């Protein structure tokens, strides 16, 4: 545990000292909020309201898309934080860790927790935009979603660690991750509903961990209990797998299993790469 905490603390210290990284990480989410929330909100509100039944005229697209933007921040921060593994190899820091009595699992877990913590902090900081956007989320719902944000950050950082263990250069890592990130975002329901997709695309949606993360965050932050099922269908909040609607517990369980599997795979790959 001392090794895990030391690596965890080191990544947090690097994050708070790097102001450019803190500022730059908000660029993409804020751009998406401006483009989708500001530029397309009127069009999307009209389209979504037109497809909904009577009583759903007050649909707010920005309220729908905001949890997805937070999830996108978690995704980008968690995965790109894994690039520090490659940087540590280049600067020789990783060799110092490898000759220490710390296990490979401890290194992977420490890196995962550090990336997840940084991602969660950045996601929580986005909550400061809620009053500026004219949104009204329940404060207790926001507090409830924070632990899940950390869990989702762990899952996505595990994915980043796996790629970092397989790729030897930062340039190759950035190119690979950029190709991966956009499909994960657009096929997750973060920015628009993903129901009624073609069969092959629907398959990608259902195996995408970000899909379940976005769905849980929206169900917690948006008052879904007060919305009729037809409205939930139009918003894509009635996620079904094999014709069966999945529960929040099942979605969280999927993300937990995904996290464990990815960390184990990253550890195995890391052992082989540094044997």
UniProtKB/TrEMBL annotation:
Membrane-protein topology: Multi-pass membrane protein
Keyword terms of this UniProt record: Cell membrane, Membrane, Transmembrane, Transmembrane helix, Transport
Transmembrane stretches, start-end: 20-44, 64-86, 107-133, 139-163, 175-194, 252-270
PROSITE patterns found in the cross-reference section: ABC_TM2 (PS51012)
Ranges of residues in domain ABC transmembrane type-2: 20-273
Pfam families: ABC2_membrane
Protein name according to UniProt: Transport permease protein
């Amino acid at each position: 545990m001392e090794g895990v905490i030391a690596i965890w603390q080191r990544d947090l210290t690097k994050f708070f000292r790097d102001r450019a990284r803190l500022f730059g990480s908000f660029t993409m989410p804020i751009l998406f909020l401006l483009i989708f929330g500001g530029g397309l909100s009127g069009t999307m509100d009209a389209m979504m309201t037109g497809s909904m039944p009577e009583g759903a005229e007050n649909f707010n697209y920005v309220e729908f898309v905001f949890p997805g933007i937070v999830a996108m921040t978690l995704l980008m921060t968690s995965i790109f934080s894994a690039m520090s593994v490659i940087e540590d190899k280049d600067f020789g820091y990783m060799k110092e860790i490898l000759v220490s009595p710390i296990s490979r699992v401890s290194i992977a877990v420490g890196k995962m927790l550090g990336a997840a913590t940084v991602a969660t902090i950045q996601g929580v900081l986005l909550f400061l935009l809620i009053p500026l956007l004219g949104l009204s989320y329940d404060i207790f719902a926001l507090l409830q979603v924070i632990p899940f944000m950390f869990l989702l950050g762990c899952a996505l950082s595990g994915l980043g660690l796996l790629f970092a263990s397989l790729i030897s250069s930062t340039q190759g890592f950035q190119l690979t991750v950029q190709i991966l990130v956009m499909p994960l975002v657009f096929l997750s329901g973060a920015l628009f509903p993903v129901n009624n997709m073609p069969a092959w695309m629907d398959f990608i949606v259902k195996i995408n961990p970000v899909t379940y993360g976005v769905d849980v965050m929206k169900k917690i932050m948006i008052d879904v209990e007060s919305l009729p099922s037809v409205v939930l269908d139009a918003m894509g909040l009635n996620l079904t797998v094999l014709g069966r609607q999945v529960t929040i517990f099942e979605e969280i369980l999927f993300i937990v299993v995904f996290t464990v599997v990815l960390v184990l795979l990253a550890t195995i790959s890391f052992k082989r790469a540094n044997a």
